[in-house]
Amino acid sequence: MLRGADERTVREAVETGDPLPGTAGFAGEIDGRLVRDVLGRQPLFVEEDDPGTWSFDRRELTAPVSVGPGVVRSLDADETASGEHPTWTLPDPDPYEDRQTGLDAVRDAVTESVASVDSDGLAVAFSGGVDSAVVAEGVPDAPCYVAGFEGSHDVAAAREAADAMGRELRVVELTHDDLREAVPELVSVLGRTNPMDIQIVLPLYLVARRVAADGFDRLAVGQGADELFGGYAKVQKAPDDPRVDADTVRGAARETVLTLPAQLERDVLALRAAGVEPVAPLLHDRVVEAALPLPDELLVAGETRKVALREAAREMVPDAVAAADKKAVQYGTYAARELDRLARQAGFKRRMDDHVEKYVKSLVADADAHADSDG
After folding, report:
1. Is the peptide bond before 278 cis (omega within 30 degrees of 0)?
2. pLDDT (tens digit, 9 = 90+) per residue, 222-232?
3. CA distances (Å), origin 264, targets 42, 126, 226, 306
4. What span, in angstroms and rounded, lies between the C-alpha atoms of 31 and 90?
5. The pTM of the whole model exceeds 0.85
């Protein structure tokens, strides 16, 4: 009935309005109400025409509507929207007064979070970047997995980082058949056909599927680090980048943090569909609380992003790994490139509007037709 936290903690958070009560996210039913934490780290859905019917899996509902982050809503509400109350909002603290205070806060929070991860039944999604390296350091006995097409950046970077850290690395080499098979399943799980979401989640889903096949039921991931610590180019370039509205780096970083609920819904649903439960220590409340007051210069310094996180990482992983750049997963694994290639091979040319999405929908239609014929 409730995932991610115990009832006492959630009940106290509701009563006090504390948005960061010391959990890694929660959602579910408590005291006749539905709750979802302030960053939406646990997905939760209600039936559009019957808000008393809910599920953690949107496929179990006829017309699923996502419960908003930070919301407490009554199961007795006549309409979905009218029953939602934004009990929690993300704090907007003043910046740290000095650099060292911020660095110490991030180091302590990150170190404690990754060290507290239970390694039982756990594997690590490992791209070779600082985020996944820090997570992996907290569970030294867990195997690390990377997915990618032959020659991809992520596979090469993961091998180099794993060698530097003395870690076991298992490579999941992706194929076109993998993509064609996975796309319809992901569309069903997510209820989304836009190429960006599909491209991002494809390698995550496929590596998780291998992890599950190897007998692990939990997968540690580095999700949240880019948003919390200023990992995006659009944050680095604020206020000159048109993709953000903020006029400061810190403001732009906050904009990206506020996109986490939709992103995490996508990622968590995909991982669960693959047969594993995600573990995201860099999204624990203590890390969020430490990251929110970071000033511009501890987010971005010149060409360096995620400044505070990299400084913390230097005490945990080799310097070269702490400083390593990372490509977005859809590009670093070649998932985006190869899905585009498949679309063009299937006749969906780039001159067509939304050619990759048209291809995605065609794969879904083919899978549905095949299922009907088998039935």
Report:
1. no
2. 999 999 999 99
3. 8, 18, 13, 20
4. 23
5. yes
| Class of the CATH domain delimited by 99-335 | alpha beta
Cα 348 to Cα 341: distance, rounded to the nearest angstrom: 9
CB atoms within 10 A of CB 214: 11
* Residue in 15, 19, 8 with CA at minimum distance from that of residue 41: 19
Question: 249 Cβ partners below 8 Å, 6+ apart?
Answer: 230, 235, 236, 238, 296, 299, 300
Number of Cβ atoms within 10 Å of the Cβ of 164: 16
C-beta atoms surrounding 213 within 10 Å = 10
**Which pLDDT tens digit goes with each residue over 20-56?**
999 999 999 999 999 999 999 999 999 998 888 999 9
Report how far residue 312's alpha carbon sits from residue 258's, in angstroms, rounded to the nearest whole number: 24
CA distances to 236, 247, 248, 295 from 240, in Å: 9, 8, 9, 18
How crowded is the C-beta side of 322, counted as CA atoms within 13 Å? 15
3-state secondary structure of 36: strand
72-83 pLDDT, tens digit per residue, is 988 875 544 455
Extents of the domains making up the chain: 2-86, 99-335
